[in-house]
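Render this sequence as a predicted structure.
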Amino acid sequence: MSAYNEPVRTSPIHLFVAAAAVCFGAGVPLSALAGESERRTEAEATAGASIHRGNTDSERYSVTFDYRARSAVHRVVFDAEANRGKSDGVQDVNNTRAGTKYDWFFHGPWYANTNVSWRQDREADLYGRYSLGAGLGYQFFDDERLRLSAEFGPSYIYEKALATRASSDEGAVRWALDYRQYILDGVLRLFHRHELVMTADDSDDWFATTRTGLRLPLYESLSVSLQLNYDYDNQTTAEHRYDSTTLLTLTYDWH
């Protein structure tokens, strides 16, 4: 049996590196935020599923967690996501990602950014992708009704293939956007996030992650969302370059 058919196992070293990166990226800014008298904190946990029966039986499940803390000068964001699924009894979705970033607002809406992330994707032959980056961002809007920011900067990418365990590392550039808006007097919430990373020496070697949806409040902190997850890897060794999933999710948030 090839390594591709074996379960994905993350070694203790990889777990330590990922945990250390997240703790280093979030721990120092959080200590700075602790002393801020005026800060906003948001967190939400989401669980979603998409199940089809008929000519093709398929199941898709997703669990996410997002945390955001913001003061006048500092902002810390952490997010994690796990997706699983199968079609006709055969697993065809198995990916997990986690990341954190720190923003330092040094001049009005302008901020300096640092970010770290980790991702695995069994079906895309990705044993692990580690990313470390920095850059410059601009906060166009940030209030209860509308939030919009964009950031751009260099990144370092380390990847290991699942089937061969072959590894590579290279420099890259990263572009990201975060959008959230309440419409219809706050009844509906639109949201969209995307991240595009392109290697510095090959413009055809790039990957993108997008999350887009519409959220409707149900009761107090509980809401329901219709969400599209779309991931694209332009130079993957997998059968398909893209992975698209539509989910109906239930979200609990607190502030």
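Summary. DSSP finds one helix and twelve strands in the chain. The helical segments are 12-34.
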